[in-house]
Write a structure and sequence with these properties.
Chain lengths: 264, 333
Amino acid sequence: MIAYAAFARSGFLTSLAYRNEVWANIFGKLVQVFARVAIWLAVYAGVTAVDGISISDMITYALLGGVVMGATRYDRIVRQVGNALKTGDVAIWLLKPVHYPLYLLAIEAGMSAYTFLLAVVPTIAIVALIYGMQPPASLLHGLMFVGFCALSFIIHFLCAAIFGVLAFWLMTVFSLEWLLQSLISLLSGLLIPFWFFPEPFGTIASHQPLAWLVYYPSAVWLGRLDMGATLLYFGIGLGWAGLLATVLALLWHRASSRITVQGG
Amino acid sequence: MTALIEARGVSKRFRQHKRFPGLLGALKTLVTTEYTEVAAVSDVSFDIAAGEAVGYLGPNGAGKSTMIKMMTGILVPSAGTLSVLGRTPHQERMANARQIGVVFGQRSQLWWDLPVVDSFTLHQRIYDIPAARYADNLKRFSDLLDLTPFLDRAVRQLSLGQRMRAEIVMSLLHDPKILFLDEPTIGLDVVAKDAVRRFLAEINRERGVTIILTTHDLQDIETICPRLIMVDHSQLIFDGELGRLRAALGSARRLTLEFATDPGPLPLGTATLTSDEGLLKHYLLEREDVSLVQVLSEVGSERGLKDVALHEPDIEEVIRTFYQRRNAAAAAQ
Ligand SMILES: Nc1ncnc2c1ncn2[C@@H]1O[C@H](COP(=O)(O)OP(=O)(O)OP(=O)(O)O)[C@@H](O)[C@H]1O
Ligand SMILES: [Mg+2]
């Protein structure tokens, strides 16, 4: 356990080693969040509400997307797992009394914490000052939002790690990274909330695991779910996380035993 | 005394999908179920006792790295049994990992972006090394290998020699009982090689750490390892003391005689003339029992002999002779 805390800390410190990236990071995120806000401003031009959702709701939604998705980098995880397996560098991890997937999770947590504090918080603050941001629907909703953010990070990590391990058997790391990016843009709710999806796509989208990346955390903040539903969907999200963790563990086991038995 | 490492008929075969050349071949490769088998290690057995230092030697592709990987538990043998510290390495990889240290010359285990000392602290956490023990080891090893000047520098900024020294120190911080090194001196200059060799020899002598190292540099073996295991084409071909190998091959010493004036061809009964440059004549002393005095008395004092040089065979020559004889024997069969 101590080891994993140390990994998280070193993930944080490693990011610190590249502190020039912070500015590039802030700038990149500003552009993204501004772009999403601008799209909604254009969509809402001359209209006060669409399906009972106001422009102010949508700006808040766009900002929340930045909060939950701004820090974790799926591309980094996919690449790290994929390359470690393909180049055989993973052997070094098999030599240590450490579980490699947990190591990755700890490192990513440290790196994400760094990006969150130094890039996400300032970006969101700037945009919120300019366009305004709604507070959470209630104190309880606000607290649940924090829980949903943690769940979002875990599911995000698990999906990316699964794609990384798949690179061992399928195509290139690059194409898997690209595939995951497309899936996330479409199915996490980052670009368009599911309440604007035509049925039955809205229902389908809101039951697959990527929905917990952006859609549910934001919906909870905005009070689109009452407390009962909030807890229910939190439970379902935990279920998805458990399932994904099992899939990752199985795939990891297969990949690493293939390396030790067949030599890669 | 029981052995620390026991290998009994250990083999490793790698199976690879057969590949066919050309465009049609590429399609055929996709659907084929044919395999080619590569025997990387074949029926190798040995025992290594606590405190030994063993050099694992052989030409490229002989199966040295494969054997190291099996002993460290990251490759599973195809046949035979392997026991390291009483455990089957790949079955108890984690427990095994805590008691061994591993250095791969070709692969860094340090954290690229962090200062060297941060990699060491992470290592401390991974292996639960008590603080006092850790500080003590770090100080001793850093002094011996002169790491202190660059402990605070990021690993990516180190030279290869500095990095290798840091790798070796890290692999020893948790007091492993066995240290495996796969080509630890590869790419190092003479000075760095020398520092690493002396350090490893000392660790083996003073701390009793068992050392198994593979190398292409015979000097490594000469300084660190009294015992030599030689492999070729996946098979074990020699296991014993370096001195025994020398003796078995007959220590053919080389003798050079220098004359003031060319005495003409000068065949001797005690030594074989191998090349004649006039003033300089080279001989091979094939028989152990012939002494230099006997040779010189055969040459006599009236030939104008100016100088004599006797070369003991060095390890490279011994091993070259060994391979040559083996190949000749194989050809004769
Ligand atoms: N993962 C693998 N898959 C297939 N074949 C392999 C694999 N690893 C090694 N081999 C083959 O096994 C044989 C032994 O390889 P190994 O790396 O053990 O040699 P080595 O003695 O360490 O050589 P070198 O001195 O070049 O490092 C070689 O023929 C090599 O091509
Ligand atoms: Mg090798």
